[in-house]
Structure formats: structure tokens, C-alpha cells
Amino acid sequence: xxxxxxxxxxxxxxxxxxxxxxxxxxxxxxxxxxxxxxxxxxxxxxxxxxxxxxxxxxxxxxxxxxxxxxxxxxxxxxxxxxxxxxxxxxxxxxxxxxxxxxxxxxxxxxxxxxxxxxxxxxxxxxxxxxxxxxxxxxxxxxxxxxxxxxxxxxxxxxxxxxxxxxxxxxxxxxxxxxxxxxxxxxxxxxxxxxxxxxxxxxxxxxxxxxxxxxxxxxxxxxxxxxxxxxxxxxxxxxxxxxxxxxxxxxxxxxxxxxxxxxxxxxxxxxxxxxxxxxxxxxxxxxxxxxxxxxxxxxxxxxxxxxxxxxxxxxxxxxxxxxxxxxxxxxxxxxxxxxxxxxxxxxxxxxxxxxxxxxxxxxxxxxxxxxxxxxxxxxxxxxxxxxxxxxxxxxxxxxxxxxxxxxx
Length: 407
Description:
Strand order of the largest sheet: 1-11-2-7-4-5
Strand content: 25-35%
Shape: globular
Low-confidence stretches: none
Largest sheet: 6 strands, antiparallel
Structural class: alpha+beta
Mean pLDDT: 94
Oligomer: single chain
């Protein structure tokens, strides 16, 4: 049996002998037709799963004859973590660090009339990986004209941890380490309550989180000997935006967090509107703290403070319309759109295929409709990694993501 230590050693050795550079995968005439395809931009975890290491990407684009040979600018958005980038086999540059927008100067003589190819070797050292910026950030700009690069790219793993069955288990991932080092030593101290901001690493196992999270809360309470209040922060919006409705591990993890509200003396701060596409740790912690504080002020200190945004109550169907009713609307629903359009709703019929829908406020209900769905069966709201959110209650707290379908 190969131990994880041996797998790590083999993996690290392979990283130093990565075949892509040695075999010239960056050359213009290198055959990429046998490579798999992936829509870019997005984190590759959506396609490859939890993969670290080197993965190569290539994309062909056309240049009009009038722009051939001219200097240009290549923009690739953010890449996690490090990259080396070529156009037509010529190196444009390299950057170390995630959350850094890649912008490379393309010298004169590089662009050719007709087909050109951009090749990117991405090295991910942990967590998310890939070209994950916004679609509009991927382009070649020449003489004031942008050639878009978002689309289906070819990709091929160079060296990855999964090729060696290696799991990168850092100290904090060791079972019981964090509990024994940081929680158990304080269990005899009196506490008023706990706040919790975590879940990103569990997004790939949201079903398990439905049991894991409430079990942890109850275990802590048993250790202290009383049912102290436990409040948490729902996962923020993060990563690239979807162009079509798709399932989302992050949405499912948020759902698991919301389900945990069935445990007594709990509360959830929804921050689906203040995350950042290119940073798993969004910088706006002040509003996170405020939303947690409002829960505590209301539930523990008896203050007349609204602490929750709108939460799904019910759905009824009238013809081709789904009519959604919410709880926790305070003085009423608010839509932050001058045209009154509510974003991030999707609807499905009997075929269970979801389509982005038109949605608008009618009184304090939301009407959801799509020309592609004659009889709505299920509705989803904010069901993606990074939805566009503009539905709030009268005090400015965002509606909590939800879905009416179950699996």
C-alpha cells in the first residue's frame, strides 16, 4: 500500500519534471485536439474536482489581416494561483499569486493573420484553481478592438495530486487537532454564545454538512453543559458568474447551513450580496459583523431590531407564473433595480430543466415567469456560486437563497 507520504514525495518529484514544458505544449503547432474542453472562466474544481498541480489551457482566436503584427494587450482576468502564458509559442509573461488580474503586453510581430493560439500553464497550490475572472476580462486588445477569449478552452493536466492519489492534508486538516487545541481547553469557561464563519472547504460534501454542522453545535453545547446561542455566517457569493442555470456546490452548502436553523437558539447572517468573485475571504467584514450583531441584539438582548432578510415561505402556481411569498420582509420587499427586475430567479417545468426567469415584485410577492416554461414546477433563487442579488427587505437585508425542488 502506498502511504500518503510516499504519494506526496512522488507528486513533488513529478512537479519538478512537469512534461508540458519539456514536450513543448505551448508551441503553436502542438496538437491540442485530443485535449478535453472546459468553459473558461471558471474554477476548475467545477469540472475536475479537488485537483491541485499543473493544468494547461489553450484557446484559438482569429486575428484580421489588418491587425496582424501589431502590438496588443492580453487580458486573462484572475488566475489561481500562478501562471505562465504564451501566444503562438512566444512567452508573454508569468505571474505568481491568485486574485491578481493578468494583463500582458503582446509585442509587435506576435499576432498573425488568421488563427492564433494562447496557451496558459496554471499552477494551483491548493483550494481553487484556474482562470476564474469575469468573461469580459478575457480578451486580446489590438488597435482599440477587443477579441473575446471567454468560451470553451482545451485543457490537459500536466501533473496533479490526483494522478498520485495524494491528498494534501495540512495540520489544520488533521482530525481533532483544531478542537483539541482551541476548543477543548476553554470548555470550562462560561460563554454567552458562539459565532461561526466557515464552510468553504465543505462545499463538495454539502449533504454530509446537513448532519455534520448541527452535530458539532450540539456536541459543543454538551461539552459546556448548556444550550448557548450559536450564530453563523452563510457562505458569501464567490467565483465566476454562471451564464446559464447550473447546480452549485456552494448553493447546496448554503442550503445545508439554512437547514441548521431547525436547531434551537441558532441564527444565520446572509452575506450573499457582499462577497467577491476573486477572493474567498471577502474584505467587507464590517457588514458581516453588523448582521451577526443584529441577531444577537434581537434574540439575546431583546432589542427591537430586524435581523433577517426575506426567507422563502411558499410558492403557488397560476398558469405560467410562479408566485413566491416570503417571511421576514420587515416593512416590505425592496428591489434594487430601477426597472423593477428581480435577478437570480430560475424556473423549471416537469422536465426539471431550469431556465433563468423574469421576476418582478407585485405587492409583497415575487412573480416568476419564463417563456420556456408553461407550467412551473420548481423555482430556485440565488442558486449559484456567485449570483446577482437585488432582492432585500425594507431594512436592506438580502433575501436568503433557496430552492423548492428536492433531490
